[in-house]
Amino acid sequence: MPGKSVTGIGILGLGVIGSRVARILSEQPTALTQHIKDDLEIVSVLVKDLQKHRSFPPPGVKITDDPEIILNHPDIQLIIEVMGGENPTVDYIKQAITAGKHVITANKEVIAKHGPDLLILARAFGTEVRFEAAVGAGLPILRSLQEDLLANDISSIHAIINGTTNYILTKMAHENLDFDSALRQAQELGFAETNPDNDVHGLDASYKLAILAMLAFHSKVEASDIYYEGITNLKVQDFEYAHELGYEIKLLAIAKKKGHTIQLRVHPTLVTQQSALANINGVNNAIQIQGDLVGSVVYSGEGAGSQSTASAILGDLISITKNQKINKARIPLNALSESDQISYISKKRFKIQPISELITRYYLRLNVADRVGVLAQIATVMGDHNISLASVIQKDADTKTNSAELVIATHPALEVELQAALQQLKTLGSVKEINNVIRVNPD
Question: Domains of the chain by range and CATH?
């Protein structure tokens, strides 16, 4: 009886996620091996520092700081990329593809910026590129968009897709921690990077939204198409006022399609406390999809961490090995015809709606002079820009500064008009500071 064939694996990166994946592969748990007929063997692992002490991987696995050893190794058929960053990672992935190797990556930046090109390249070389772990870690959202929801015309996505910021916002909302304290706590617990800029400024979520929109709308989406804002301007009092108005504040990633136009944005958002996303707390993620057939569906769960990310990576590994067993031509099953899912990435492109054309409701927190007629002045300016006030909250004035905090909720208004009104408000002597402006969902 012939012995089992061996699938040789190369891993690029041995950080927290890389170590977790390597450990699971070396232990060969039944939950993994029962789905794979081949033996899996880690042939080599790429690291930055050869001198760093590591308790893993086990003896027999070659550790190298030379990517060429892995990318050109004849016994490696599959590359797992968990290095992160755009460069030189994207070049390593391209080199692996052209060498005939399959690639699994958790790199949302690379897929958001280069995904279509990588998929086309993989098709040409008869290999697969899988990236389920790039969005939502263990949530099977990308596979669902490519398979389970494929019959649907998807009109919108509303998502909480950054665990770091959701943890920070949860602490600010429910424990009255300020931003810096909540971030520090997230870092101490390993939920935030030492340099959290991509997370707290909304860039990480924008990469993930680009991937979701590409798959949901079957259209090429550039990372630069996404309008994004971060959470660094939020204060504890914003959460207090939001609660008083019946809302929670979330960093929401929103994609909407209407006709031949799509809207793509990431920013802090007031969401009603009764909504599906309002109670997604801590490092959890949630992605709400609206389809014409399925209606509204929500995928939720832990969106960060080595365990859930490893789950997605190994799920991709199982899919690739199954595909290659039944597809003798070594052409990915999702790339067999011109009408398949590959074609949209290069042939279809929706018009991107600029943020200036957005129509939504707004929350404004202002510091104003405590004197008669101020609200009337503000209402006049807003009215001049076709913005009507839905409600106003004013707390007791600060007698030391002779000022008061004023919170305004508007009816739906055009973004460009709102921005013009804000510029005009800054010229009023009665408006000392515009502390915050937050968009509201639903629009």
Answer: 6-137+306-347 (3.40.50.720), 147-303 (3.30.360.10), 356-441 (3.30.70.260)
